[in-house]
Amino acid sequence: MSPHSLKKLGVGVVAVTCLLAATAASAKDKPSWRDGRQVFKKCEACHSFKPDEHRFGPSLYKVTGRKAAGAPGFPYSAAMKQRGTEGLAWTDKAMDAFFTAPRKFVPKTKMAFPGLKDAKDRRNVIAYVKRMAKRGR
Fold first, then answer.
1. Whole domain around residue 15: which residue ranges?
2. In the predicted model, is pLDDT for residue 10 greater than 70?
3. Tens of pLDDT, residues 56-88
4. How many domains is the chain partitioned into structurally?
5. 67 with 92, same domain?
6. Beta carbons within 8 Å of 115's beta carbon, 6+ residues apart
7. What does pTM read for this prediction?
8. Which element (helix H / strand E) includes 35?
C-alpha cells in the first residue's frame, strides 16, 4: 500500500469514528420512554392513563395535544380552565414548561408537585406520557 493510500485510509477511519461518536451521542440524548416510566412514579399517585380515571389529578388518557383542562369530569382550578380557554394545549413544549415549574407556568393551579428540574427527566417523562396516553392503561 502506498503512503497516499494509507493517508486516505486514515482520514476515512477518523471520519467513520467521528460519525459513530456523533450517532452514539445523539442516541444518548434521545428521550427514553423507558427511563420516563421510572420518573413517572413521582406522578402516578395523582395521575392515571385510564380513560375517566381521575385521582388527585386528571386522567392523562389522550392528553397529548389536548386543550388544558380538557379531561371531562375533572374539577380543574379556575386558572387551568382559563389557560385552556386561552388556547393552551399539551404539546411537548407546554408539557416541558409545566413539568419544570407547574405553579409558575399556571399560577394557582391545583397541582402541588414542585416540578422536575432535570431537563433529561422531563424529556423522558414526556416520551412516556405520550406513549401511555395513547394506550389508556
1. 1-30
2. no
3. 999 999 999 999 999 999 999 999 999 999 999
4. 2
5. yes
6. 99, 100, 101, 102, 104
7. 0.78
8. helix 33-40
